[in-house]
Design brief:
Elements (H helix, E strand, L loop, with lengths): L5 H15 L15 H16 L1 H8 L9 H17 L3 H13 L2 H4 L2 H21 L7 H11 L1 H13 L4 E4 L9 E3 L5 E3 L15 E3 L18 E5 L5 H8 L3 E6 L2 H14 L4 E4 L10 E7 L14 H4 L2 H20 L1 E11 L8 H10 L3 E3 L20 E3 L13 E8 L1
Parallel strand pairs: 5-6, 5-8, 6-7, 8-9
Antiparallel strand pairs: 1-3, 1-4, 2-3, 9-12, 10-12, 11-12
Bound molecules: S-adenosylmethionine.
The site of S-adenosylmethionine (SAM) has 16 residues, from helix 10.
Keywords: Methyltransferase, RNA-binding, S-adenosyl-L-methionine, Transferase
Organism: Rhodophyticola porphyridii
Pfam family, one: Methyltr_RsmB-F
């Protein structure tokens, strides 16, 4: 990108400010009236600067006598990212960073500094960059993750966050392959190269985008053909589609009308059916069902590879609130089951309080619930995915050699 990419870069700087200062998720940042290609580039640059923020600051630090204001810092971070990772013409990158600095009174006085520092980064930065460890998680995540899995695993998870995430697909029919993808041991398809929109089968609904880890909770229910299944917190519907494709009579419930509109579109595209309920799980009554799947709202810390903005926006306090909600939801979900019915509880979180500990506490509260230990090997997984209480703990550092997976926790419970 040269000077002609200035609009995308300016939008990336605005987005960085919104994430870092206003604590807004990148998915909620409005890139204004930019053409779609520039908007996509702005979001990509923002996400990548956030992914590597600690490393970028480490490269810049030796050239700064004192820390400049956040607006100047972000111009330097963006320029350094483009120099060190995107790697197209250093001259153009430095010139556009200087042009961006001159645009605003808060940064104009630092345009000389931006010029000088980025020229040094272009020369000496690559050697430092290679040696600098991945951006660390914030303390409120490092502590519980390190405590649960150990320091080496924590470092491996941070490395996985740095590496980013491939795109996985779930085929509507088991065993179907799609050119341009490879089949993973669990049956998901992983995009090898190119754009997902260019793959055959999208319009016909032959597959949908879903991380390999996210595709496993629905499979814990086994054969669901003709079973009545309540999918709680269903939108945008990845798990609803899986259950419907396997022949279940699905009732999909979610509180969000907007997200349910996406679930409706997904059902229409794939030619699958589900009964749709827009309601708060805590107020709704219905059933009983043969099975319930609860994909509870959570910190989403298992998806940091895809959403590197999350650690900057979420907080320990927010997770505490979510943990209380998950507990209430689990208690409610159990009441929708027929006697002998099965319940899958899952979250895309790395935190035991949203996974393992939540299930252990539910088993203590309800002596009519028991856990059915999951055998990951039967799902194409590995024995090391088992967690002591009988659930499955998936981590982003698993499958490191072939692109990793999202962090997820899931457990299969049964009402006695
Ligand atoms: C992790 S997402 C679900 C992803 C979905 N299961 C899938 O596979 O595509 C959590 C969902 O919980 C929904 N939710 C949050 N609070 C809720 C509540 N009180 N009642 C029902 N749904 C709720 C959110 O709207 C969000 O769609």
């Amino acid at each position: 990108m040269s000077l002609e990419g200035l609009d995308a870069r300016r939008a990336a700087l605005d987005a960085l400010y919104e994430v870092l200062w206003e604590k807004r998720l990148l998915s909620h940042v409005n890139t204004g009236a930019l053409p779609p290609a520039d908007a996509a580039r702005a979001k990509r640059l923002t996400a990548e600067v956030l992914r590597h923020l600690g490393r970028l600051d480490a490269v810049l630090r030796p050239y700064l006598a004192r820390r400049p204001n956040m607006a100047v810092q972000n111009i330097l971070r963006l320029g350094a990212y483009e120099l060190l990772v995107d790697g197209s013409g250093a001259h153009g990158i430095v010139n556009s960073a200087v042009a961006l600095a001159k645009r605003h009174p808060r940064t104009a006085r630092a345009s000389g500094l931006v010029n000088a520092v980025l020229r040094k980064v272009a020369e000496d930065g690559p050697a430092v960059w290679e040696k600098t460890p991945p951006h660390p998680l914030p303390v409120w995540l490092r502590k519980p993750i390190g405590k649960a899995f150990g320091h080496d695993v924590l470092l491996a998870i941070e490395a996985a966050h740095q590496a980013g995430a491939p795109i996985d697909l779930t085929p509507k029919t088991d065993g179907v392959t799609v050119p341009g993808t490879e089949t993973l041991p669990t049956g998901s398809l992983r995009l090898k190269h190119g754009q997902v929109s260019a793959l055959p089968g999208y319009a016909e609904g032959a597959w949908w985008v879903q991380d390999a880890a996210a595709a496993l909770p629905a499979r814990l229910l086994g054969d669901v053909a003709s079973a009545s299944v309540l999918d709680l917190c269903a939108a945008p519907g990845g798990k609803t589609l899986q259950l419907a494709a396997r022949g279940a009579a699905v009732t999909a419930l979610d509180i969000s009308e907007d997200r349910m509109a996406r679930l409706r579109e997904n059902l229409a595209r794939t030619g699958l059916n589900a009964q749709i309920v827009i309601a708060d799980i805590l107020d709704w009554s219905g059933g009983p069902f043969d099975a319930v799947l609860l994909d509870a709202p959570c910190s989403a810390t298992g998806t940091i590879r895809r959403h590197p903005d999350l650690p900057f926006v979420k907080s320990a306090e927010e997770v505490e609130t979510l943990t209380r909600l998950q507990m209430q939801m689990l208690d409610r979900a159990k009441d929708f089951l027929k006697p002998g019915g099965r319940l899958v509880y899952c979250t895309c979180s790395l935190l035991p309080n949203e996974g393992e500990n939540q299930v252990k506490a539910a088993l203590k509260r309800h002596n009519d619930l028991e856990i059915i230990p999951v055998d990951p090997v039967s799902l194409g997984g590995e024995p090391g995915w088992c967690s002591p209480e009988g659930g499955l703990r998936l981590r982003p550092d698993f499958w490191a050699g072939c692109g990793g997976m999202d962090g997820f926790y899931m457990a299969l419970l049964q009402r006695r």
